[in-house]
Inverse folding.
């Protein structure tokens, strides 16, 4: 059953503005607290793999995300949007978190991560959530899209992976499968660092009267 009339993409996953110098550092399971600095630390190999899995729609467990975070620069952290990053993991808070909790995330979901003040003991009210994002194959249509760059090709690598640079509506094409029942937020494994949003989710975001410019939204073109 087809329920959506439109599909949108968001470039938030690749936005440096949403991840750069947020004034927050993390503690991962089995590791010490990161130092309070804006210089991005070298993450453990497992953490880097888990970050990549998140962006591809992998099934992450609680211990794959930061155990906790702390804010060492409150002024910078106060400027974070409702979509931001906790230790390199896409995360949400505020109105956006409330909206996502109200829609169908499929195999995705919200994992609460405690965020403390600089003393690492006083928890900020939040709540703050790391995202698990569902994966849906066969929704992205590279052949009918523009402003793409090929990262891997079937001819040379035996797999297909693209990066998009859409700066307007109708540049990224999706198949009719993207209109079918399914999660309201997902990634297609063939398109890097791009979130797909259903019409249901877009309507919920707009009904919540939240600012959405930082999400870098563009409407997709459906290939019939």
């Amino acid at each position: 059953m087809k329920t959506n009339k439109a599909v949108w993409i968001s470039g938030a996953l690749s936005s440096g503005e949403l991840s750069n110098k947020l004034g927050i550092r993390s503690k991962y399971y089995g590791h010490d607290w990161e130092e309070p600095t804006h210089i991005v630390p070298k993450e453990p190999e497992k953490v880097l793999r888990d970050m990549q899995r998140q962006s591809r729609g992998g099934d992450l467990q609680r211990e794959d995300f930061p155990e906790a975070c702390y804010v060492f620069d409150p002024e910078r952290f106060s400027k974070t949007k409702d979509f931001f990053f906790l230790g390199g993991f896409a995360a949400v808070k505020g109105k956006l978190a409330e909206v996502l909790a109200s829609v169908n995330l499929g195999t995705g979901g919200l994992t609460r991560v405690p965020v403390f003040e600089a003393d690492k003991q006083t928890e900020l009210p939040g709540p703050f959530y790391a995202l698990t994002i569902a994966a849906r194959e066969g929704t992205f249509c590279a052949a009918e899209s523009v402003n793409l760059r090929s990262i891997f090709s079937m001819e040379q690598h035996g797999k297909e992976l693209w990066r998009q640079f859409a700066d307007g509506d109708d540049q990224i094409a999706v198949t009719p499968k993207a209109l079918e029942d399914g999660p309201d937020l997902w990634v297609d494994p063939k398109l890097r660092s791009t979130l797909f949003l259903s019409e249901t989710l877009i309507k919920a975001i707009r009904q919540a009267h939240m600012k959405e410019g930082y999400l870098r939204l563009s409407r997709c073109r459906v290939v019939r």
Q: What stands out?
A: DSSP finds five helices and 18 strands in the chain. The two ends are 16 Å apart (CA to CA). The CA atoms of residues 116 and 123 lie 4 Å apart. The longest helix spans residues 45-55.
